[in-house]
TrEMBL record:
Family the entry assigns: Belongs to the DnaG primase family.
Domain Toprim, chain residue ranges per copy: 262-344
Upper lineage: Bacteria, Pseudomonadati, Pseudomonadota, Alphaproteobacteria, Rhodobacterales
Organism (species): Roseinatronobacter monicus
Cofactor: Zn(2+)
Gene designation per UniProt: dnaG
Function: RNA polymerase that catalyzes the synthesis of short RNA molecules used as primers for DNA polymerase during DNA replication.
Entries under InterPro entries matching the protein: DNA_primase_core_N_sf (IPR037068), DNA_primase_DnaG (IPR006295), DNA_primase_Znf_CHC2 (IPR036977), DnaG_bac (IPR030846), DNAG_N (IPR013264), DnaG_primase (IPR050219), TOPRIM_DnaG_bac (IPR034151), TOPRIM_dom (IPR006171)
Subunit structure: Monomer. Interacts with DnaB.
Name used for this protein in its record: DNA primase
């Protein structure tokens, strides 16, 4: 029985070889890597204790390094189950949920015809290969030598030459007994509509044989030597052997080469693939000069779950990448995606390798972008988002792209990453070189990094030695103002708190009022002091020079807005809590002239508990202003228990 083309390939793709072999062996999990489809076990074909039997899910083959048994899934079934070939196919088809094709004499006839055409193509490949050494191919050899292809490379890729004559190949094949109809059917010759003698399709061109994953020569690609030729590159036409949209150049060797340290690179043309392979990137393929089709993309994913698409560094290359991205979005899954290698302007992989060598290409490959970043680049490049409508339009485009992703989990992760990119993109920009750049009118003064250890001067500060609650409150006000000066973009988020936080010193209040009045457009200005009134600017410079301000983490970490937000929230909460306690105690003191009652006691207890709650840090990593919380709470409790409001008899 003859099977239709592609049936066995589909069967092998649906049933992993490890699932079949795993029924007969016990995997050595210490040596195996399931995530990579790499399995080891004692060989089922000979007696051994070590795990020398290797199964590669990606390539679909097994090999024993002890007895040298090798084959694919079907051969394994035949060898271990004593099955015939077709019986093994039927077993696998049932497991894969595929219907066995009906026994069709025409299918057998078609398969025989394909085999005959493949033989004709192999004969043509040998002819072209021999012609490269002829005197007519001198210019072609010089061209190939100039592109850096040595004799070993020419042999490896079976590169040949088609003489610039109309019937050279025709005469050779017919002279060898090949029927004219097979030469035409294989796409090697063109039959004129007027019934004239067929003539060679490839003339005056360097020839690149195209083989399928089984190693059969199915087509040719030809590069013209004449600069005035109508087509620089010419491929074989669609034939019973060759479907351009389902074929890749160098697919077989690339599949064999793909492994842990060998990423699959998808380039644009033959020379790119050859240059990559010769530079050590042995897993490289090309889509034969056309945009990648859905079938080719699935074929690429069967070779590697995350191939790298090397885009030519021009607008056409980028457009091709965008088209491929749109094609891939509905097909993405956690197990298969794409990365994009963006090459320098007007350069392809061959150009990069010539200019910078393997190291330059390796750097570009290692820096390949995930698909989500290319999506973001397309939706934002060369655009201005200065209105709510334009930002809403961006949201709609991104939402449309997300809707194409079928896998729910993956779609969720894409949405999360796009939200992160949006936040970073629209976040106000600030200078990165220093956390604070006060206006010094050209003096060039900059703030130095804080010392690594506490200095004697720090230990001598009011905070370290003073015991006044007013000092702690004043310093907290300075920290709040310093955080807002260092992270001005947070002003709008804390506008209500800032309006409520009336400052106790004249300088602090002046600066607070200036920050409240500052126009929103200045909140991303790294030279913020220049936009403040003179008195507020001088106060800002004074505050930023204070030791306890300079060492505060949210002031030092000027690039971390999220950390600053948490610290600012904490400091405002502490400030308002302390002031609330002070109000309660003041009102209680006013009531002390009267006889104390349970209500007054309750109020004092509530004030103490409020103080305790406020002083428990909600952020483990926020800065502490250093006050003795336990002492203060203990003093409040002592006052309550001693009933200080009761007048004692003298």
């Amino acid at each position: 029985m003859s099977l239709p083309p592609g049936f066995l390939d589909e069967l092998r793709n649906r049933v992993s070889i490890s699932s079949v072999v795993g029924r007969k062996v016990t995997w050595d999990m210490r040596k195996s890597n399931q995530a990579k489809g790499d399995f080891w076990a004692p060989c089922p074909f000979h007696q051994e204790k070590s795990a020398s039997f290797h199964v590669d899910d990606r390539k679909g083959f097994y090999y024993c390094f002890g007895c040298h048994a090798k084959g694919d899934t079907l051969k394994f079934l035949c060898e271990t189950e004593n099955m015939g070939f077709m019986e093994a196919v039927e077993v696998m088809a049932r497991e894969a949920g595929m219907t066995m094709p009906a026994r069709d004499p025409r299918a057998a006839e078609k398969a025989d015809r394909l085999s005959e055409l493949a033989e004709v193509m192999d004969g043509a490949a040998r002819f072209f290969r021999a012609q490269l050494n002829s005197s007519a191919a001198t210019a072609a050899r010089e061209y190939l030598r100039g592109r850096g292809l040595d004799a070993q490379t020419l042999e490896r890729f079976e590169i040949g030459f088609a003489p610039d004559a109309r019937h050279t190949l025709w005469a050779h094949l017919t002279g060898a007994g090949v029927s004219p109809d097979k030469i035409v059917e294989a796409g090697l010759a063109i039959a004129p509509d007027d019934g004239g003698k067929p003539y060679d399709r490839f003339r005056g061109r360097i020839i690149f044989p195209i083989r399928d994953t089984r190693g059969r020569c199915i087509a040719f690609g030809g590069r013209a030597m004449d600069p005035n030729a109508r087509a620089k590159y010419l491929n074989s036409p669609e034939t019973p052997l060759f479907d351009k949209g389902r074929s890749l150049y160098n697919a077989g060797p690339a599949r064999a080469a793909t492994g842990k340290d060998t990423p699959l690179i998808v380039a644009e043309g033959y020379m790119d693939v050859i240059a990559l392979v010769e530079a050590g990137f042995t897993a490289a393929v090309a889509p034969l000069g056309t945009a990648i089709t859905g079938d080719q993309l699935r074929m690429i994913w069967r070779i590697s779950p995350e191939p790298i698409i090397a885009l030519d560094g021009d607008s056409a290359g980028l457009r091709a990448g965008y088209r491929l991205m749109d094609l891939a979005l509905p097909l993405l899954s956690p197990e298969q995606s794409l990365r994009f290698c963006l090459l320098p302007e007007k350069m392809d992989p061959d150009d990069v390798l010539r200019a910078g060598g393997t190291g330059a290409m390796r750097k570009l490959v290692d820096g390949a972008l995930p698909l989500v970043q290319l999506l973001w680049q397309r939706e934002t490049e060369a655009q201005v988002f200065d209105s709510p409508e334009r930002r809403a339009a961006l949201d709609n485009r991104l939402r449309g792209a997300l809707d194409k992703i079928a896998d729910k989990s993956l779609r969720s992760h894409y949405a999360e990453e796009l939200r992160r990119l949006q936040f970073a993109f629209f976040k106000p920009k600030r200078a990165k070189q220093t956390p604070w750049s006060p206006s010094m009118r050209g003096s060039g003064k900059r703030f130095e990094a804080p010392p690594a250890h506490a200095l004697q001067a720090t230990r001598a500060t009011l905070l370290a030695n003073g015991d006044s609650a007013d000092i702690a409150e004043r310093m907290r006000e300075e920290i709040i103002l310093a955080i807002l000066l260092t992270h001005p973009a947070l002003r709008d988020m804390f506008m209500t708190d800032l309006e409520r936080a009336e400052m106790r010193t004249t300088g602090h209040e002046t600066l607070r009022q200036a920050l409240l009045a500052l126009p929103q457009k200045h909140l991303s200005d790294h030279a913020l002091p220049d936009t403040l009134p003179e008195a507020a600017r001088l106060e800002a410079e004074r505050i930023m020079e204070l030791g306890h301000v300079r060492i505060a983490p949210p002031v030092r970490n000027h690039d971390d807005d999220e950390f600053a937000r948490k610290c600012l929230e904490e400091e405002f909460a502490k400030l308002f809590s302390r002031r609330g306690v002070a109000v309660e105690l003041r009102e209680a003191t006013e009531d002390m002239a009267e006889l104390a009652d349970e209500g007054l006691t309750w109020r004092l207890r509530q004030a103490a508990e409020s103080r305790n709650r406020a002083e428990r840090s909600r952020l483990s990593d926020s800065a502490d202003l250093g006050e003795d919380r336990a002492a203060l709470s203990g003093e409040l409790q002592r006052l309550i228990e001693s009933e200080v409001w009761v007048k004692r008899k003298k």
